[in-house]
Structure formats: C-alpha cells, structure tokens
Amino acid sequence: MKSLYTTLIGSMLISPLCFNAFAQQQLPNADFEGEWVDCMPWTFYQDADSLGKVSKFIIGKNPAGWNVSNVGGMVSFFNGVPNGMGATQVGDSVGGFNSNAAIQLVNTPNPFLPVQIVPGYISLGTTWSTANPTFGGPTGITVTKSDGGSWGGMNFTERPAGLEFMYKRSRGEDKPNEKSTVVAYLWKGHWTQKDVPAIVYMVGSPVSVDMVDRDRCVLGMEMTGCQGGEVSKTDDAELIAVLKAEITENTDEWTKFSGKFEYYSDATPEMINVIIAAGDYFGGADVVGKDNSLVVDDVKLIYAGDSQSQNYPGYLNVEMMGTQIADNQPSTIVITPTGDGKCTFLLPDLTLNLGGSEMALGDIKVEDVTMTEAGGITTYAGEVKGLTLAGGIIADVNLNGTITAAGEVNMKIDVMWNTVPINVTFTSFTSAIGSIEADGNGAAEYFNLQGIRVNGDSMTPGVYVKRQGGKVSKIIVR
Question: Which of the four, 56, 78, 185, 450, has the lowest number of CB atoms within 10 Å?
C-alpha cells in the first residue's frame, strides 16, 4: 500500500494525468502492491494434462498480471516422480518507491549448473526458456540450443505515447557493462511459430509446441540462431508501435525511466506486451552477467495530452531587504514537464502573511525551465524577465533547485523587483514534515495546501497544515 500521505495528497491535488488514468487503459498491478501469486514456469505446466507426467512446479511468486522469468530447469524422474533440476528464482518482492513492494530482477546462476546464468526479466506475456542438455564436456553436462523470451501479452486497445517507471540498478563483478533493457510493443493479429521447444528433459529432446505471438516474431526480428520452426501470420497481423530503450547507469537512488513509443500505423491495437530486463534481453545467453540487478516500481503508460503535472506541498521562506517576511509558510509548487528536458514551474497564488495581514502577489510562473536528471536527482534551472505580478509589480525571476526521486524538493526563487531583491526558498512538505522537533507551545495556526491561512473553527473537510510554535503537522478534517 502506498503511503497514506501520498494517497491523501493525490486525492486532494489530483492532476489531469490522474483523470486520464481512469479513462484510458493502464497496466495491471503496476505498483506491485496488489496480490502476488505462485509462479509456475510455463516450460513445466504447458499441456501438463496431455503429457501426463509433468507436475505444476512452483518457483517463487509473480505480481498478479505479470510473469517473472523464473525457470524450472530440466525435467527428470526419480521413482516416477517428476523433478526440476536447476530450478532458479530470478525475481522477488522488495521494498518499493514510497511503498511496500517493488520487483527486484537479478541474473542468477542455475544452482545445478552454475555456469548457466538465468536472466531476470518481467513481462505481461508468458516467459519461457529452453535448452538441450547432453552428458559430456568439462562440467559433465553440455548445454546447447539455449533460447527464451516472452510470448503473448495483454488485451489492449489504446495508443499510449510512452512508458514510465521508477528503478534502481546495480551490476555484479562478472559483466558490469551489460545494459538493462526496456521493450514494449502494440500489435494486432497473430504470428505463429512452429515447433518451439517448451519442456526440457534431463535426457532426450525437448517437447515442442506452436507458439503464438513470440516477441521476436511480432517485432519482425531476425530469427537465425533462434529455436523453433517456420513463422506464419494472419492476414491482419500488424506491428503498430514499439518502444526499445537501454538503461546503462547504476543508481542506488530511485530514478525515473521515461520512454516514447514509435508508431508505424494508425491502426487500433489488440494487444500489448511490456518487457523489463535486468540485462541485455535480446543479447543471448553469452552476455548475461551474474548478479546484475534491476529493481522496478510504478510502471505506467503515458498518454498524449497528459500534462503530467506534479504538485509538491511544502513551505516558503521569504526574505526581503534583510527582513524575514515569511517563515515556514505552507504553500505548493507545480511542475509540468513540456518535453525535451523542459518544464514549467508554477508557484500559484503566492500570498504572503505580513504581520497578520495577507498580501496577494499572484502566480510566480517560469516557463522553459531546463531539467537535468542524474543519480536520482533532477536539477532545475530557468528564468523569466518582466513577470507581471499583482498591483502592477514587474519583476525578474531566477529559479534554481532540485527534486529527488523520493519527491524531496529544494528550490531557490530569486525575485528582483526594481532594485529590491526578494529571496524565496521552497522546501517540500515531504522532506520538512516530521523534521521539526521544537516544542508545540503557542497559539495554533492553520493553512490550506496553497499556503493560505484559514480559520481553525470553520475548516471544511480536507487536508490542512497546523503550525503551533515550532512544530508543524498535517491534519485531516473529515
């Protein structure tokens, strides 16, 4: 469950993005806070009843709606009971981005044959793997004809503009330069590949099936060296849009990934698949690096027309001509990305509390602000000349600041009014709340999330900030 603060503020300060999320199709269990179910690798339970021998092996858990690339290994029989030699778990639940759960994907050695590293990835489609083990070689078993990936996906009829999620990334010592991979695609119709190996036995050839909508087939990729036979497609089969991206920087801070779909057609999709891999998804078995890890949370589709505006409640401090004229005054800023590393900064309805009276200055708005992201921190820089404020005030504004992936904001807003400098700083509610430990003596003051003082005896239902002495807290009026 996401934090109560996030839920409450999201309900009070809902942006256009939130409205679109209800109207347009999103991905299932995208914050991984929902149910996690038993993971039964498809190589084991496909056609289990008709084969009559293979049990439904459980290897770890999947977040419901997704499939992790856990594998069951090779089927062998002891006293007539099927077993999985080399079952390997590559995905698990860990603490999330301001939440209880995220998915950690780790390229993991096969415990039966450690030289074989199982790639960690997650997909809306069905994950699968195959290989042809034979006795012999320096390890006693030689593995050839390795292959795998994802097939199928989720029913889907929208045309999103892009995909976003939060992530952390680390590399092991084996192959530290292996990239991580993000692949998403939309299509209609179907591709079928004949004779794809599905169930791997300790002795003998793998059992093969006809696989529908294998990732490489839908994407029109080269199939040389891949397992399986002839590929055919229905008359209406069409690849509509693709997103392919790489992540190459390590970070132990939550960092945002953002990518755009490239559209090839105006057609309406029927299916979508999303694949997020700790390593080089299409690179083959030889490039998979042991212990290379990717942690993923909050996977969401972005639609054209989404403003993606983000509200940050917090506190203003204002100093003018050596005098502190606002001290930890509750307020809110709004960041609206506009594309190409730019955004619009807005401090709406700036109202200063001056000796018990209020002075309304209007909006402090800076357009074409440059955003630079590194190590989970986004840096903002911009300026505006000749900004018109209330009362005919004309001022220049220079903006500099940072926002972390966890939503902690520190902004410096230098306003020059004629020759008078007004120094404004903004610190997010998230980072400031709970950090003030002074006693709570004195009369209580109440503010709405726009920073305007309200009467504590007549507050309507909502979220407010209470300041008493040096102590600041959030309250909810029902």
Answer: 78
Q: Which residues are bridge partners to 475 per DSSP?
A: 464
| CATH number 2.60.40 given to 310-477 | no
b/e map 460-478, b = 16+ CB within 10 Å: eeebbbbbbeeebebeeee
Cα(75)–Cα(82) distance, rounded to whole angstroms? 6
What's the pTM value of the predicted model, to 2 decimals? 0.64
77, 83, 88, 89: CA torsion to nearest 10 = 160
Amino acid letter at 390? A
Contact assessment for residue 243 and residue 260, using Cβ atoms and an 8 Å cutoff: yes
pLDDT class of 106 with cuts at 50, 70, 90: very high
Place of tokens 């004629």: 418
Instruction: Tell me the CATH number for domain 25-302.
Output: 2.60.120.260
With beta carbons less than 8 A apart as the criterion, state whether 59 and 52 touch.
no
Query: In whole angstroms, how far apart are CA 432 and each of 142, 314, 411?
Result: 59, 7, 13
Whether 300 contacts 165, CB under 8 Å: yes
Q: Break the chain into its structural domains and give their ranges.
A: 25-302, 310-477
* Residue 130 structure tokens: 């195959």
The amino acid present at 266, given as its one-letter code, is: D
One-letter amino acid for residue 317 of the chain: N
CA dihedral (464, 468, 473, 476) in degrees, to 10, reads -40
- Sequence-separated (6 or more) residues with CB below 8 Å from residue 14: none
Task: Considering only residues 129 and 137, tell me which one the structure prediction assigns the higher pLDDT.
Answer: 129
Digit-coded pLDDT (tens) for 139-194: 566 666 677 899 999 999 999 999 999 999 999 999 999 999 999 999 999 999 99
Residue 60 neighbours by CB distance under 10 Å: 18
Pairing of strands 310-320, 420-428: antiparallel
CA pair distance 211, 126, nearest whole angstrom: 11
Which residue do the tokens 């203003």 mark?
316
